[in-house]
């Protein structure tokens, strides 16, 4: 057993997370072949809403060309854009350690990881664009404070062990949240998530391996690893969002099969997964109430501070200001790259037209 290669309980199966991603990939292929033969396709007289409901009911994919309710489209744009922004802003806390990684090997691995996050942002912005918005519009909404990014990236990375804790806990939480999104009802989002999850799995392992190395090193290294886990544990639990009773969107998103599990269900799954992994690391989780509940067949644990989550989401976390300032600056400094790429694309298109 290593990292997330543990027997899980997703949808009753005893497979690892990567196996679940494979299964989602197979589902997508099967759905493409199957079509919607049973429900027929909407003709001029068909009720579009009925057809949409039938597609969702039959566990098929909604594709960009399909009719969809406006509120479904808006929910997807909100969630996918927030997810894309999170991937891009999420490059900052770890990017902070690229120049200070303890060895060339660690530096190369971290560089590759941070680059992967940029790629994830790209796939996700592209998935959002299939819903009729442009990437520029989404970036503007972020800058105007009208779209969010994940609370977790507003915490500072104080030591090298934080890079390990982010990999193990933050990427671990991201995987638990995102593997079910491989089965999301919107095709482009589901397909993007398959690749994202495969890469996140590597990220999670590299973090786990950093912590494993530190926890088997000197007493000072072990203490540094423990300190990082102590600081990242509750913010990682908060990543799953408010408790179900306070979640605005969960019920509707689950009915549309955008979300497959509620915030609390996924948080519980994450806790259950981490307990065993922490034992193997030889490190503790900072919760005196954490214990196995035989009756529930799950761990009891202390909930994160949701008042703090709301404060961080609304812009008052330890690093919100710094993260947004940095993002705005990087965007402005990258203007010439976007202009050059657009000019090059226009030139290529003009050449292709002449040749045709
Ligand atoms: N950070 C910031 N905002 C959050 C949040 C968090 N951790 N959790 C919830 N919220 C916001 C919601 O966006 C919503 O605000 P809005 O109505 O203004 O949009 C509000 O709090 C209420 O929450 P809900 O539970 O009703 O919202 P959702 O149903 O959308 O569930 C979610 C929240 C579970 C985060 C869901 O949107 C989701 O699964 N998103 C996709 C995954 C994602 O975005 N992950 C972000 C991390 S990416 C990452 O980790 C990168 C990796 O490299 C580490």
UniProtKB/TrEMBL annotation:
GO terms for biological process: phenylacetate catabolic process. Keywords: Oxidoreductase. The keyword Endoplasmic reticulum does not apply. Signal peptide: none annotated. It holds the Pfam family PaaA_PaaC. Gene3D superfamilies: 1.20.1260.10. GO terms for cellular component: cytosol. This is Ring-1,2-phenylacetyl-CoA epoxidase subunit PaaA. The lineage of its organism: Bacteria, Bacillati, Actinomycetota, Actinomycetes, Micromonosporales. It is an enzyme of class 1 (oxidoreductase). NCBIfam families: PA_CoA_Oxy1. Its EC number is 1.14.13.149. GO terms for molecular function: phenylacetyl-CoA 1,2-epoxidase activity. SUPFAM superfamilies: Ferritin-like.
């Amino acid at each position: 057993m290593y990292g997330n290669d543990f027997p899980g309980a997703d949808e009753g199966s005893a497979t690892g997370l990567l196996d679940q991603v494979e299964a989602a990939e197979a589902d997508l292929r099967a759905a493409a072949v199957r079509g919607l033969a049973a429900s027929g396709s909407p003709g001029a007289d068909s009720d579009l809403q009925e057809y949409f409901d039938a597609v969702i009911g039959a566990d098929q994919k909604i594709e960009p060309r399909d009719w969809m309710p406006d509120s479904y489209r808006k929910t997807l744009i909100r969630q996918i854009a927030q997810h894309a922004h999170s991937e891009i802003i999420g490059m900052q806390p770890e990017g902070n350690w690229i120049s200070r990684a303890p060895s060339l090997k660690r530096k190369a691995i971290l560089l590759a990881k941070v680059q992967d996050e940029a790629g994830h942002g790209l796939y996700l912005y592209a998935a959002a664009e299939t819903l009729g918005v442009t990437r520029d519009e989404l970036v503007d909404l972020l800058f105007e404070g009208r779209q969010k990014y994940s609370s977790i990236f507003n915490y500072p990375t104080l030591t090298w062990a934080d890079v390990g804790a982010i990999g193990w806990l933050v990427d671990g939480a991201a995987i638990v949240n995102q593997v079910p999104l491989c089965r999301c009802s919107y095709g482009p989002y589901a397909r993007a998530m398959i690749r994202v999850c495969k890469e996140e799995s590597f990220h999670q392992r590299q973090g786990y391996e950093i912590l494993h190395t530190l926890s088997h090193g000197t007493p000072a290294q072990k203490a540094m690893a423990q300190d990082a886990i102590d600081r990242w544990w509750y913010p990682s639990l908060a990543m799953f969002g408010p408790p179900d009773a306070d979640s605005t969107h969960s019920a509707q998103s689950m009915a549309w099969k955008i979300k497959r599990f509620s915030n609390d269900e996924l948080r519980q799954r994450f806790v259950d997964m981490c307990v065993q992994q922490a034992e193997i690391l030889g490190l503790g989780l900072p919760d005196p109430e954490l214990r196995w509940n035989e009756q529930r067949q799950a761990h009891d644990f202390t909930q994160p501070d949701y008042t703090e989550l709301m404060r961080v989401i609304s812009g008052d976390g330890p690093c919100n200001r710094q993260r947004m300032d940095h993002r705005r600056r990087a965007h402005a400094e990258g203007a010439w790259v976007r202009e050059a790429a657009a000019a090059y694309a226009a030139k290529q298109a003009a050449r292709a037209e002449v040749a045709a």
